[in-house]
Design goal:
This protein is α+β, with helices and mostly antiparallel strands. It has helices at 2-27, 54-61, 64-67, 78-93, 141-157, 171-179; strands at 39-40, 44-48, 98-104, 110-120, 125-132, 161-166, 183-194, 197-207. The chain has a single domain, classed as Aminopeptidase. The chain has an eight-stranded mixed β-sheet with strand order 1-2-3-4-5-6-8-7, sandwiched between helices. Helix 2 (54-61) crosses helix 4 (78-93). Bound molecules: coenzyme A. Coenzyme A (COA) binds next to strand 5, helix 5 and helix 6.
Length: 214
């Protein structure tokens, strides 16, 4: 009798795991890894980041102001940006991330980038990241781009939650997240070692049901 119930337990565990795997497959819409999702907003066109964008990216990611709280290496030369983009393209091929260029819809000018990465099919979660050229700060472009990417993440891709990790000193980024409806979830003390220093991290998240179309 005991053996029988153990057998049943095992069988139901296997069924549960299989059901979860099927659910994950059904819920994350894999078609966007076949055809890259170009997103349009009132002022912006978010298109797939390509190797040819390396000069723009290098200009932005070599800027001291931009990199102040990014806690990653500045792109000192074009090769660094090409390698960065190649890694992003690889991640898209491996179905773990989306990397968009933010461009002006009218002129095609490069404004910055925005990403959804670490696509987690078990928990239907991903991490958002974003960068704008300083020339375009303070004009609401990132809010507009984020709204489009978050909407895509929830409504089209099938995510349940989106997280953002920031350096606690990055006030502008925090304000942006709060304006988008993100809530603070955690403060990790000295969990990140960068250039020989242990840095703190704040984690923010947004649940699908809390996403308000502003
Ligand atoms: C984080 C970052 C993208 C924020 O940029 P931003 O310009 O502040 O964000 P937005 O484009 O959404 O602009 C919002 C501002 O534009 C203003 N604005 C002007 N016109 C606007 C419009 N038509 N619509 C909305 N907001 C508008 C808003 O008032 C708001 O300013 P406020 O918060 O002082 O009121 C930018 O500072 C950046 O690239 N930093 C360096 C990289 C970085 O740290 N990335 C984050 C890593 S975690």
């Amino acid at each position: 009798m005991v053996q029988c119930s153990l057998g049943l337990q095992k069988a139901s565990a296997v069924l549960y795991t299989a059901a979860n795997a099927i659910l994950a497959f059904v819920m994350i819409n894999e078609k966007y890894f076949e055809e890259f999702p170009q997103l349009k907003t009132e002022r912006l066109l978010l298109r797939k980041q390509e190797l040819k964008d390396a000069p723009h990216l290098q200009q932005m990611r070599s800027n001291e102001q931009v990199m102040l709280y990014m806690d990653s290496d500045r792109h000192e030369d074009i090769k660094a940006s090409e390698a960065f983009i190649a890694r992003n393209l690889e991640s898209y091929e491996q179905k773990t991330g989306f990397f968009w260029d933010i461009t002006a819809a009218e002129t095609g000018n490069y404004l910055g980038d925005i990403i959804l990465r670490k696509i987690d099919r078990t928990n239907f979660r991903a991490e958002i990241g974003y960068t704008l050229k300083p020339d375009y700060w303070g004009r609401g472009y990132m809010k507009e781009a984020m709204r489009a990417v978050i909407s895509f993440g929830f409504k089209d891709l099938g995510l349940h939650s989106i997280e953002a990790n920031i350096n606690p000193a990055n006030t502008t980024s925090r304000e942006l997240l709060l304006k988008m409806g993100f809530l603070k979830e955690a403060f990790f003390r000295e969990n990140y070692n960068y250039n020989g220093r242990f840095l703190d991290t704040e984690i923010y998240s947004l649940l699908e049901r809390d996403f308000i179309q502003q």
